[in-house]
UniProtKB/TrEMBL annotation, chain A:
The keyword Cell membrane applies. GO terms for cellular component: plasma membrane. It is a multi-pass membrane protein. Residues 98-328 form the ABC transmembrane type-1 domain. The chain crosses the membrane at residues 12-33, 104-124, 136-162, 201-224, 254-280, 305-331. Pfam families: BPD_transp_1 (PF00528), BPD_transp_1_N (PF19300). Its main location: membrane. InterPro entries: BPD_transp_1_N (IPR045621), MetI-like (IPR000515), MetI-like_sf (IPR035906). Keywords: Cell membrane, Membrane, Transmembrane, Transmembrane helix, Transport. It comes from the Bacteria. This is Peptide ABC transporter. Coiled coil: none annotated.
Automatic annotation (TrEMBL), chain B:
Coiled coil: none annotated. Its main location: membrane. InterPro entries: BP-dependent_transpt_permease, MetI-like, MetI-like_sf, OppC_N. GO terms for biological process: peptide transport; protein transport; transmembrane transport. The keyword DNA damage does not apply. This is D-ala-D-ala transporter subunit. CDD domains: TM_PBP2. Residues 82-271 form the ABC transmembrane type-1 domain. It holds the Pfam family BPD_transp_1.
Length: 344, 282
């Protein structure tokens, strides 16, 4: 088996174990809290008979370990329980609201990579000169500011005072959502050839995605800078200078690519943080994603729905890290070389 | 990690103006929080009662940051918000930090199944974004100040466990640890008297950075309505409440938002300065 494949299978196995661990953790937290879940679910006016019936139906009278067994069995059947708030299956609710969140996070992630990496590279290239100081100051301010603060500031500046962007929502009034294919409005609109809907969706994405991306951009720039400064100390940089390569080419190629590996690993974590911060940004821009649903079910003590939302987020986090591992093992020459040796 | 003497570290710290700026911001915020009762212009506006003759006033000489929808002075409430945020950060970290450090020491030094169980447990906690885990815990508990702190504490210790674990793993190979083991020192002695002091720079640096991040987390929770409840002045909920009155009463959310920014920025710059000065890997 090739080393890359073995590494990935190993990571996959660990991720599955961690996900099982997360499910145990969240399930037990949900069950040890004071109060009868059935009574919470039915509200204060429910009769004892109704409560008993729900306890029986949800296996709440079984020992907690057996309850967990039922929970896992349902989970493997794609059943996350029923939301008390929407009265619909939690899995269906998540499928409805999650694409909006994911679309927002993916656009923000793209901004983080496309702006954060070059900013960090410039800072390292002009180390201890003014582009470096400006980039460092900007990135530390970006990192220290919660996503909702960026949201409020951007909204006030670019939607109220200087209204060049829409205030909230995913599409303007009067524009219908494109037919549901992926749930991503931008992709669905393109697939249907609705160019004006596509641009409208992108137009609505810009402010929330920027608010979400800013701290990630700062973090990425900081990491790229420190990682590249580390690389600049290596002998091969001195050698390429001696060969007479231009400074710009050295920074763009020789110093940048090796520095990408440590940065990428952390990027996975940043992406996960964005999933969480999306809750804050969605609130500011009234974005109809998982956040509104999540906060609503938390307020209503809708236990099954809370467990479902947390599991989906944790699964997304683990998948992201697997993808990052895959990318790192593809671009890391040490792993690639090991593979070539293994084949020879 | 190379341990430096504190005087060398201080010289290095002092030479970086950005770190000094961080220190000044931190001292400023702590001083505001400590002396809130004396320096705030309208200390009586902490509670639910305001001045009904001065509702929704824009910033002026009498009210530097304006007044809110029931006529309370915003500056006063922001300064009390500093006090609450810092108090919560200190309480959260004073529980989660020692727990995390001790578990990290045990996992790193004892190894074997202790290491396996503890480190897999931290993996599980770290697989859920902190804000989401804290939100979920708040979902199962009533939204009160104590519970918000509890939720943040529960998810914060694994970061210290992982940090200390990594430090211990590299320290355990050092000569001084071997020497102590050779002369027959007990495991607790080696862990707490020999290795622990060498974890201090990394832990202290992380602690400084974390005060900012706990403030950020707690204000995010209350921004979503899951933390501190009114009328207690809290920066996060002030931003959320103020956002309803945009753009006319812009000061209602912009000033608390900037206050969070300044507070977190201060601790971050200070933490970064300490990290550089101590060469600590956090």
């Amino acid at each position: 088996m090739s080393p890359v494949l073995r590494l990935l299978l190993q990571r996959l196995a660990i991720s599955v174990l961690v996900l099982i661990g997360v499910s145990i953790l969240i399930f037990f937290i949900a069950r040890i809290v004071p109060g009868d879940p059935a009574r919470i679910a039915l509200g204060p006016n429910a009769s004892q008979a109704q409560i008993d019936a729900l306890r029986e139906a949800r296996h709440l009278n079984d020992p907690i370990v057996v309850q967990y067994g039922w929970f896992i069995r349902d989970l493997l059947h794609g059943d996350l329980g029923t939301s008390l708030y929407t009265k619909r299956p939690v899995a269906q609710d998540v499928a409805t609201y999650f694409p909006a969140t994911l679309e927002l996070v993916l656009y923000a992630g793209a901004m983080m990579i496309l702006l954060g990496l070059p900013l960090g590279r410039l800072a390292a290239r002009f180390q201890r000169r003014w582009p470096d100081h400006v980039a460092r100051l900007l990135s530390v301010i970006a990192v220290c500011t919660p996503a909702f603060v960026w949201g409020v500031i951007l909204q006030l500046t670019f939607a109220y005072i200087w209204p060049i962007f829409p205030l909230e929502g995913r599409l303007s009034n009067g524009i219908d959502a494109p037919p549901l294919i992926t749930g991503f409005y931008t992709i669905d609109a393109l697939l249907n050839g609705q160019i004006s809907t596509f641009f409208n969706a992108v137009y609505h994405l810009i402010l929330p995605a920027t608010a979400l991306a800013l701290s990630g951009i700062g973090q990425t720039a900081r990491l790229t800078r420190s990682s590249m400064i580390e690389t600049y100390r290596r002998p091969f940089i001195g050698m390429s200078r001696a060969y007479g390569f231009r400074e710009d080419r050295i920074s763009r190629r020789f110093a940048f690519w090796p520095s990408l590996i440590p940065t990428l690993t952390i990027l996975g974590l940043d992406f996960a943080t964005m999933l969480a911060n999306a809750f804050l940004v969605e609130r500011v821009f009234v974005w109809p994603g998982l956040s509104r649903y999540g906060v609503e079910v938390i307020m209503r003590k809708d236990l099954d729905a809370i467990v479902g939302v947390v599991l989906v987020i944790a699964a997304m986090f683990l998948i992201t890290n697997l993808v990052v591992d895959l990318i790192v093992s593809i671009i890391n020459p040490r792993i690639r070389l090991a593979e070539r040796k293994a084949k020879a | 990690m190379s341990a430096k003497s504190s005087s060398v570290a201080w010289t290095e710290f002092r030479s970086n103006p950005i770190s000094i700026l961080g220190l000044i911001l931190v001292v400023f915020c702590i001083a505001l929080a400590l002396f809130a009762d004396v320096i705030t212009p309208y200390p009586e506006h902490v509670g639910p009662i305001g001045d009904f003759t001065a509702i929704n006033q824009a910033p002026s000489a009498a009210h530097w940051f304006g007044t809110d929808t029931i006529g309370r002075d915003l500056l006063t409430r922001i300064i009390y918000g500093f006090r609450l945020s810092l108090l919560m950060a200190v309480l959260v970290l004073s529980i989660s930090m020692p727990v995390g450090v001790i578990l990290g020491l045990l996992a790193g030094y004892l190894g074997g199944w202790v290491e396996f169980v503890l480190m897999r447990l931290t993996d599980i906690f770290l697989a859920i974004p902190p804000l989401v885990l804290a939100m979920a815990i708040m979902g199962f508990l009533p939204a009160t100040l104590t519970n918000a702190m509890l939720a943040v504490t529960v998810m914060w210790w694994p970061w210290y466990t992982r940090l200390v674990y990594n430090v211990v793993r590299s320290e355990a190979r050092e000569g001084y640890v071997l020497a102590a083991e050779v002369i027959g020192a007990s495991s607790p002695h080696v862990m707490f008297r020999e290795i622990l002091p060498n974890c201090a720079p990394a832990v202290l640096t992380k602690l400084t950075l974390d005060i900012g991040f706990v403030v950020l987390m707690v204000s995010s929770l209350s921004f979503l309505g899951l933390g501190v409840q009114p009328p207690t002045p809290d920066l996060g909920s002030m931003v959320a409440d103020g956002a309803k009155y945009m753009p006319d009463a812009w000061w209602l959310s912009i000033f608390p938002a900037l206050a969070i920014m300044v507070l977190v920025l201060g601790f971050n710059l200070l933490g970064d300065g300490l990290r550089e000065a101590f060469d600590a890997e956090v």
